[in-house]
Input
Amino acid sequence: MRYKLLLLLFLVPVAILGQVPTPQALPGDTALFSFGIFADCQYCECSNSGNRFYKLSKIKLHNAVHRFNTLPLKFVVNLGDLINEGAASYDTLIPILKKLKHPLHTVYGNHDFLLNEEADKQVRQAWGLNKLYYSFSQPGWRFIVLNANDVGIAAYPEGSKEYAEGNAYIEQLRLNYAGNTNAYNGALGTQQMKWLRKELDEAARKNERVIVMGHMPIKPTGNGSNLWNDRELEVILLRYPQVAAYFCGHHHPGQYEESDGIHYLNFLGMVETSITAFSVIHIFGDRIEVQGFGREESRVLPLLRDLAPPVAE
Output
């Protein structure tokens, strides 16, 4: 009986999971382009834990893909933690995501690293990822994808040099009484920070607006799930008026803050509760509109920063 129920859920895409709303016509002018986004699917064939319904995530992802395929999107972004654990989880989810009619851009989360070397290689090949931080563009816009586990312990085997460096980083944070010392967080390394500045400089030269995307939040300050070097990253983003928003997952309850003209939007975890969460983002000349589905809230994010050269350090 349980098997038949799961089969029914796959055949009827919007049944049971909180009735994903039908998109409504947006008021005002026409969007320049739109894209889909979701965070923390975190699927595994595991028992529920609190509000996390791990097994249901494959159905929620199936439904999100079904909805995305009905819309004229330029691409879809996975903000990380596609799985909770185990390479077999990818065997279930990759076929679902292969049904997407739009290009998929993947952000790696801490749970995505919980694989052996060979399985990790196969997954990166499936997503076409040569590097875990990269950028891509749409006319007038640049999207910068970060690897929030560049420094940390989630991405490296215990006993490795990188793992030891991650532990040392945590200890230094604790000495400074930081509130985000959790081992499941991470940081951007020196080389990635240099690369980020080059990407932002190029966006400034081309007069492009920028959305930066990483797995872990950097605002609000003091959040225990924040990137370890959250403040350092925030300072860099503030120097570039081109940066309109920072999108992330990781913190499943989600959160939003506007600070100095930058929108920091932490999307809700898809795995949380039996109701899904995903979004469609509409880009306009003067704003970003977030069209939420399931538990995700719809909101309008005005473009508050005038394009200008970066602020000198």
